[in-house]
């Protein structure tokens, strides 16, 4: 099996997780990057990078995210280059009754989560000014830094990294044999597409359709301020964490970004998003916007990941082709990589990703 050539298209967090997991199976994968993990506008570069399972109310999706969180914890023991830079979660982005229901549901699924009142929350976040009635708390989640984490996984995988544009998949009969790039054909025994929002375009070249409902997210990075926050914090209209270098990483809601009504620039919205944190917290100093990104989240239609083999119009599967596209790549990446490599290399069906297979083509479609 160690002589199997596996190509992973995509060098963001999902591709990096797959490459690292392949290396743990004795393989040296080839990773094709069309821009790199820090490419402007890429989902990885523009990620808040919160690794969590508490934000899902679908039991099957929760199981995948919890398995992934546990896999991340294993990887953090294996690699010095990845660790949580923000630890534990405080969340109150739901009304109190819904928040209580969420805690009960997660607890029933075996997740270590608790509902704390405003007094307890204020004790744990002493600079918090806007104190809610209740908050969800869990001590096992956290956030990582996107670029360094992705780079550390790719380096540890020993992958051969190619920087080139992928034009199309190469196929022969019912098998995908590689990709056509701007530098010519590259052949593989197994081809894994982890190219985020570019995945549908590449799949179309072998008449596989994947519909997306991708959405934009505005993320703001401040200048450094005195360290005061070690947790991931999310309220109804903001989410914030503080990096080790003191910079605040701030988002609005977790839904799709839409510009405010009126004549406002993206920079104005970024400044307002950061200013909101100055209302929520008694900050050590007044931060300013250092930079901001508007990233496009790769969300398959229906909102859930799409992972697995691709069906052909004749009812069979394309051999040699595997797809992994999702948001959030950080929460899901480690668990998906572990399960996907078991399927690809061993033919073992993985229960945690079984509900998220690729859509099958309708009978009679080409």
Explain this structure:
The structure is a single chain. Helix content is 28%, strand content 27%. The protein is an alpha/beta fold. Strands 3, 4, 5, 6, 12, 13, 14, 15 and 16 form a nine-stranded mixed β-sheet that branches. Strands 7-2-1-11-18-17 form a six-stranded mixed β-sheet, covered by helices on one side. Strands 8-9-10 form a three-stranded antiparallel β-sheet. Helix 1 (13-24) runs parallel beside helix 8 (329-346) and helix 2 packs across helix 8. The longest helix is centred in the N-terminal third of the chain and has 20 residues, at 59-78. 42% of the residues are buried. Residues 36-41 have low confidence and may be disordered.
Reading the helices and strands in chain order gives EHEEHEHEHEHEEEEEHEEEEHEEEH
- Assign a percent range to the helix content: 25-40%
Distance between the termini: 34 Å
Query: What is the general shape?
Result: globular
Number of strands: 18
Cα gyration radius (Å): 21 Å
Largest sheet: 9 strands, mixed
Structural class: alpha/beta
The portion of residues forming beta strands comes to 25-35%
Q: Helical element count?
A: 8
Low-confidence spans: 36-41
Round the mean pLDDT to the nearest integer and report it.
Answer: 93
């Amino acid at each position: 099996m160690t002589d199997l050539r596996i190509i992973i298209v995509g060098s963001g967090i999902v591709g990096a997780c797959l490459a690292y997991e392949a290396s743990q199976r004795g393989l040296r994968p080839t990773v094709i990057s069309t821009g790199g993990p820090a490419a402007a506008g890429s989902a990885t570069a523009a990620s808040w990078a919160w690794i969590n399972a508490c934000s899902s109310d679908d039991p099957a999706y929760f199981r995948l995210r919890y398995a992934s969180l546990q896999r991340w914890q294993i990887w953090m023991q294996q690699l010095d280059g990845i660790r949580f830079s923000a630890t534990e979660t405080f969340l109150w982005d739901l009304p109190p009754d819904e928040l209580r229901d969420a805690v009960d549901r997660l607890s029933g699924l075996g997740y270590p989560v608790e509902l704390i009142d405003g007094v307890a929350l204020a004790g744990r976040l002493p600079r918090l000014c806007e104190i809610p009635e209740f908050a969800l708390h869990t001590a096992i989640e956290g956030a990582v830094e996107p670029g360094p984490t992705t780079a550390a996984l790719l380096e540890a995988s020993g992958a051969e990294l190619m920087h080139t544009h992928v034009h199309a998949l190469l196929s022969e009969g019912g098998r995908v044999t590689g990709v056509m790039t701007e530098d010519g054909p590259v052949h593989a025994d197994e081809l894994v597409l982890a190219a985020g929002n570019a995945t549908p375009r590449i799949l179309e070249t072998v008449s596989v359709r994947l519909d997306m409902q991708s959405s934009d997210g505005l993320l703001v990075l401040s200048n450094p301020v005195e360290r005061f926050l070690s947790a991931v914090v999310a309220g109804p209209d903001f989410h914030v964490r503080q990096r080790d270098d003191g910079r605040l990483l701030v988002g609005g809601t977790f839904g799709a970004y839409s510009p405010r009504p009126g004549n406002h620039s993206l920079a104005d919205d970024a400044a307002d998003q950061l200013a909101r944190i100055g209302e929520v917290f008694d900050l050590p100093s007044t931060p300013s916007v250092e930079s901001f990104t508007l990233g496009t989240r790769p969300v398959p239609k229906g909102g859930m990941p799409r992972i697995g083999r691709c069906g052909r119009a004749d009812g069979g599967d394309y051999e040699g082709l595997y797809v992994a596209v999702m948001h959030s790549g950080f929460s899901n990446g480690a668990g998906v990589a572990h399960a996907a490599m078991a399927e690809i290399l061993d033919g073992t069906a993985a229960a945690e990703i079984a509900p998220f297979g690729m859509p099958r083509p309708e009978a009679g479609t080409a």
